[in-house]
Write a structure and sequence with these properties.
Chain lengths: 424, 279
């Protein structure tokens, strides 16, 4: 009984304030509260520290899991009362939350726009109004095994079979050739133990990148919101995507980002298309550590194309601290390169990437810049129901498409009907 | 060996098989969680999956426990769960006692109505809860989280305590009152010791409801009062999932409730059988 009473008294004591430190400053200094997804917190920490050092204003970074951040934002925006001054928003949320955030048009000067990749500028606007300032971006680039690509025996064998030198692929045909070539039984035991690439059936972004490379006027939706998922470019991209199943490990329908990253890090595949931030994150115990090269995303008929993974800083209309919030966002833009010196090592401004591109450890930046500037690189459609479209129509369709004997055109037609139903 | 025993043996074997299957079914996910917490990043996500690590490591525990805010979140979880459990019991025991002793129609309706509130999805009351807590100045405090969690545990606590108290004969109350005890004294000194197993079961359910709750903690906390389920979820980011560290922290976080359950096992078993035989 005594122990229970002691525990209760201790719990009551902790309950009064909580054990996690102060959310608002107790020393009278102003505080900017920033809601940020767990993976992005590291990106903002150096900026927050510098902001506090320069202005004396504290920055409280509230870290939430990805899905949780969306739920938290939804509930706070719908309640009309918010607990934060700035929110880091995934690009696909901007349209849905646009009514609840302040316009930032005055921050997007010509100089600012010139230092941002085109897709970031395009995605920052909802109905012609800038609603978020890019804070970091990412894109899938090509990772390849240098120990294989630079092996004279492999080079000779490839050239003999395909009639051109072995080098990181730049287009669909070369990618297919190399994926087929590197699908090998390296130890001669009669079983394939090296695959050319992976096929990610459980995520949609990579297929969308191929849709852009194929030259579609939009991904899934056109500029007017019409569903165009059944057009020739979507079909070409799906055919290209699923043909690689023959040169990929089994179980493509369940392969997501984590699985694909691990297949590559385990040395099971020769090439993977993956988000650029993963380049410096290859584990020390990985079979491929120190043997990986980075190249721009491959090109289709419309050139290099990718889906940028952009994040934006926005200010809630219901916030209490809007001037300070804007000051922080301006500071984050001005000191965008600080984010590169973080666990994720990403930024949003071209100049920030270019500053580091020729430094050791940042070899992937050149490929990332080329990809983000690719003529076919385009953002995902600005539609509030985009996540629902992805979860309900796109991923199930891809999972069926990577199974043997799938009728890709029929699957696209079926997806079109589902998406039209979602959009009403 | 008698015919009866021979006939019993296959049945017993079948029962042992079913029991063993159930144990494997329930224990394997936790065992896999535990084993994953000792794997290297490559092993944790090996394709195809590996049950046993190739190389055993404690690095995940180091990484998980050294993460900023983990200790604070643990203290917050303990605080919120303890307060919520106490609140639930303090409110549920008298409520259930009143309902089972006075046996009015409205009392029966009240117990049913309390149970019906369990059918409302928490997300439906999340938004008004945020506004209410903000108006009371209780956001980002374990007290606010505990009160929110009590809305989940209280209905079940009332219902559980009602079923336990129902099994206690009225004669015990009457005897206490003949000896001069008031209603509350009879409840405290006579009835509660009889149903302490039931109280233990109710307390554990209330504690677990708060300990594992995610949504209200997500909506109501920022920095000061974040609970451990939120910190565990933070290992899943847009850029991937840190399986090793996540499973390490989840393992550590599950230990207190396992210990609590083992500690109170005697009372739990007593509580489970309470009311099974009515005199």
């Amino acid at each position: 009984m005594g122990a229970a009473a002691t525990a209760l008294v201790m719990a009551a004591g902790m309950a009064a304030c909580g054990a996690g430190g102060n959310a608002s400053s107790s020393d009278g200094a102003e505080t900017v509260t920033v809601l940020v997804e767990g993976g992005g917190k590291a990106e903002l920490e150096p900026v927050a520290e510098a902001f506090t050092e320069e202005t004396g204003t504290k920055v409280s970074l509230v870290e939430l899991p990805y899905d949780g951040l969306y739920d938290r934002l939804s509930s706070e925006f719908s309640s009309g009362s918010v607990s934060f001054d700035v929110a880091a928003l995934d690009a696909i949320w901007l349209t849905g939350f646009a009514d609840g955030v302040e316009p930032l048009d005055d921050m997007f000067t010509d100089e600012v726009q010139a230092d941002l990749f085109p897709a970031l500028v395009e995605e920052a606007q909802v109905d012609g109004t800038f609603v978020g300032m890019p804070v970091w971006t990412n894109a899938e680039i090509l990772f390849y095994r240098t120990d294989l690509f630079e092996d004279p025996k492999q080079q000779a064998a490839f050239e003999k079979e395909y009639g051109y030198p072995l080098a990181p692929p730049t287009d669909w045909q070369q990618f297919q050739d190399m994926a087929a070539f590197f699908t090998q039984d390296t130890d001669g035991d009669g079983t394939t133990d090296l695959y050319g690439t992976d096929v990610k059936g459980a995520v949609e972004t990579e297929w969308l990148a191929h849709v852009a490379q194929a030259g579609s006027p939009g991904m899934v939706l056109d500029a007017d919101g019409n569903v165009i998922i059944d057009n020739a470019e979507h079909l070409a991209a799906l055919d290209f995507y699923t043909e690689a199943v023959a040169d990929a490990p089994e179980g493509a329908s369940q392969v997501d980002w984590a699985a694909a990253q691990n297949l590559f890090n385990q040395g099971q595949v020769a090439m993977t298309k993956f988000w650029a931030h993963a380049y410096p994150q290859i584990p020390e115990d990985s079979k491929v550590k120190g043997k990986v090269g980075a190249a721009p995303m491959i090109a289709g008929d419309a050139g290099i194309g990718a889906v940028p993974g952009n994040w934006y800083l926005s200010i809630p209309k219901a916030g209490d601290n809007k001037e300070l919030a804007q000051e922080f966002i301006q500071f984050a833009y001005d000191h965008n390169d600080l984010s590169i010196d973080s666990a994720l090592g990403l930024a949003a401004r071209k100049s920030a990437f270019e500053k580091y591109a020729d430094q050791p450890g940042y070899e992937h930046f050149e490929a990332l810049i080329a990809t983000l500037e690719g003529p076919a690189t385009m953002p995902r459609p600005a539609n509030a129901k985009w996540q629902q479209i992805v979860d309900t129509a796109l991923i199930p369709m891809l999972q069926k498409a990577v199974e043997p004997g799938a009728d890709n055109q029929a699957l696209l037609d079926e997806a079109k009907a589902q998406i039209e139903e979602i959009l009403g | 060996m008698s015919t009866l025993e021979v006939r019993k043996t296959p049945t017993r074997l079948l029962l042992w098989f079913l029991l063993g299957s159930m144990v494997v079914l329930y224990a394997f996910p936790f065992l896999y969680l535990l084993l994953t917490s000792f794997k290297t990043p490559l092993d944790a996500l090996a394709v195809p999956p590996k049950v046993l690590p190739d190389e055993w490591t404690l690095a995940n525990y180091e990484r998980a426990l050294s993460r900023e805010g983990v200790l604070a979140s643990f203290i917050n979880s303990v605080s919120a769960a303890t307060i919520s459990t106490v609140l639930s019991l303090v409110l549920a025991v008298p409520a259930a006692y009143g309902v089972t002793r006075f046996r009015t129609v409205s009392g029966r309706v009240f117990v049913m109505a309390a149970l019906v509130t369990r059918m409302i999805p928490p997300v439906a009351i999340g938004v008004p809860m945020v506004g209410m807590m903000r108006a009371l100045g209780l956001t980002d405090t374990p007290t606010g989280v505990a009160i929110a969690h009590t809305t989940i545990s209280l209905p079940l606590s009332i219902w559980l305590m009602s079923s336990f108290l129902e099994s206690v004969p009225d004669e015990l109350d009457e005897a206490a009152r003949v000896d001069g005890a008031g209603r509350l004294a009879a409840l405290w000194y006579i009835i509660l010791p009889v149903v302490r197993g039931g109280v233990a079961v109710t307390a554990i359910f209330a504690f677990l409801a708060s300990w594992n709750e995610f949504l209200f903690a997500l909506l109501l906390t920022a920095i000061r009062a974040q609970t451990t389920p939120l910190v565990i979820a933070n290992f899943q980011t847009q850029f991937g999932l840190e399986w090793g560290a996540m499973t390490a922290l989840a393992t550590v976080y599950s230990l207190p409730v396992i210990l609590l359950t083992l500690l109170l096992q005697r009372y739990i078993v007593a509580g489970m059988t309470l009311g099974a035989v009515k005199g």
